[in-house]
Every structure is written in C-alpha cells, then in structure tokens.
Amino acid sequence: MKVRIFLKSYLQLIFQDFWYLTMLFAIIVFGLTADHLLGIDSIKKYSLLLIGSFFLSLFATMNLYHNDSRQNKYLKQKVASYWADTLSQFLVALIVNIFSGSLIFIFSLILNRNILLDTVGILTLIAVGFLGSSIATLFKTQWGRHSSLGQVGVLVFVYLALSGSVISLLDYVEWLLPPLSKIIVTLQSKPFIPQLLPITGQTFLYGLVLFIISSLIYRPKKMH
C-alpha cells in the first residue's frame, strides 16, 4: 500500500511538467529522421540513441528528485516508510525506462523480423536508461544538504560513463566504471546488436548496485 502511494506520486512528478515527454519525443523524432537528414547507418543511429536514452533518464530522474524535494515533504512525513519510498524509486526508474526504451527502439526504424536483434536492442536501451537513473539516484543529495557534492558526482560519473572504454589509462579499472562507453565501443568495432547482450546484463547489474548503494547511503540513522 505504501509503495503504491509513493509510486503513484513519483509517476505524477515524472509527467507533470512535460519535460520527460518532450525529451522523449525529440529522441523519437531523431530516430525517425536521422537516416535521411544525417545520412548515417542504423548502427551509428542506434549508438546515438543509446547516448540519448542515457541522458534522457539521467535528466528526467534528476528532475524527479528536484520536484520530489519540493513537493513530497508532507507525503513522506505522513507515510513515513523509507524502504517503501526506496522501492518506489527503483520501480519508477524501471517502469519509465521500459516505456522510453521500447518506444525509442520501435520508432527508430531499426525494428525488424530478427527477434534476437529486436529484443537485445530494446533491452540495451532500457539498460542504459536504467544506468542514467541509477546515477541520478546515487547523487540525489544535490537536491539536499550537499548540493555541490551531488553535482560534481553526477559530472564525474557521466564523464566516466562516456570515456571509460576510450581512455587507455582507465583500462585497468574498466570493470568499476559505468559500461556505457563499453557498449558504444563494442558496437562500433563489430556492428552487430545481439552481441551486446552480455554487456547489457552488466549494465543492468551496475545500475542495480548503484541503487543498492544509494539506498544504504540515504538510509536514516534512526529507522522508524
């Protein structure tokens, strides 16, 4: 019951100012028109859609926590369940990214009769979106007492996500870095979407670990 209350509130916050829907629509339009306007192939377009999905979820989740910090103080005092709140944040990230990842891929004109390609294509978009949401969740403190720390943390993680597999100095710690760049580099070296399945699983796992870490970091010292 408490989870449902928080989940409903978060979904309303996601859609209330049309920011998320506007960005999603812009990415869908890009997917529909990129072939003709930019003259790029499907793999390059898909790579750009992956990056777009990552930033869409990152900014949408940051906007969610910004609105949450302003509008949900009374609700959280009334319901007073940290773990229900945390689970709701995880579920809304999952729901929103499944929604956006599926729509982006379907309208990207990459969809075909290859079930494996379509499935992995959608799952990878969902995974990178989930990664963006998890980073925003880990550093949601930017809307609290430690705003500078949260902002710097987001910037650092975004930089590592985009450059982890590109900068040779980071090769030794690549397994610790957000795997977005690994997906892009792998796709460019061998343009075959189904090969991304193992990295997609790694990306989901990475995002899940960030959610777990954030739930422990922000847990109140005195649980009611």
From TrEMBL:
Q: Organism's domain of life? A: Bacteria
Q: Which UniProt keywords apply?
A: Membrane, Transmembrane, Transmembrane helix
* Transmembrane regions listed in the UniProt entry: 20-40, 46-65, 86-110, 116-139, 151-172, 192-218
Q: What is this protein called?
A: Uncharacterized protein
- The protein's organism comes out as Companilactobacillus heilongjiangensis
Q: What is the lineage of its organism?
A: Bacteria, Bacillati, Bacillota, Bacilli, Lactobacillales
